[in-house]
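Researcher: Here's a chain I'd like modeled. Treat it as a single chain, no partners, no ligands.
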Amino acid sequence: MEDEKKQNLDIETPNNITIKGIIGLLMGNTDCNDNRKVISLGIGDPTAYSCFHTTDVAQEAVVEALRSAKFNGYSPTAGLPPARKAIAEYLSRDLPYKLSSDDVYLTAGCTQAIEITLSILARPGMNILLPRPGFPIYGLCAAFRHLEIRYYDLVPDKGWEVDLKAVEALADQSTVAMVIINPGNPCGNVYTYQHLNKIAETAKKLGVVIIADEVYGHLAFGANAFVPMGVFGSIAPVITLGSLSKRWLVPGWRLGWLVMNDPDGSLKSPKFVERLKKYTDICGGPATFIQAAVPTIIEQTHEVFFRKTINMLKQTSDICFEKIKEIHCICCPYKPEGSMAVMVSNTCNM
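Model: Modeled as a single isolated chain. Structure tokens:
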């Protein structure tokens, strides 16, 4: 009887590798007498560096919302209506159709948006297609939801484009979705309109949902402009994940979103929407006063703030790219054009 109890308590933990886990391991094995600092090169937190600051508009909007004492209670589980409306209008600027407030669900950062999305799509025996290289949290969330993970490769010689032939070979009737990260994390790439269109056509052919991770949306400083995957929502249904974290430089505010880019309604069946709403009922969303500040943050942030961030990212990425050339054991197969990341390799032709 005692052995049975121990077996019930012996819960299997996914063995997926995460950046935070690696950093924790390094820190734990660093000699306490060694004064050298372990620098993380894998966590996209711009606030860790003194050159990145959010706009005064954002800070003042949060302070005003907090001091008003109107937002100390719980918010609706899908988010405050004005915040959902502001995000719908913000994202609709770049789309050939208009999103409604009902298409938007607020989350505690983009990580929670990932967790919710995979949870509502997961069913016994199903699989999901993830990019390699990619963001490790997808693999970790999929493992916890017992989704079989199938990795497709990104091609460095083609700007880290998706290997669409590999995607078609991996997918089957049990594939629920494919994840696209654009701008790329950790590769620093930005996909062209043409390539995104091909991805959408492939998803349509395979009958799968596209999960578009656009947490670095608009942070593009190369030849390719940022194009939202939602532009192709009429070809294949898209669930867009994003947040204020990167573009507004406030990852600690934990204000993210999950958006249904599905103008034809092929995904938004009553059962699916009900499942999504019920799942948000059990998840704690962003702080109510942060949500209350969203309309002001989005409507009143000036373009000069965004341009300053883009210029700084381009400058620092150029420095990083050039300095990597001086390190003989690694190389950068593709110069970054977006996000806050660069991918290196130890197998480049020197």
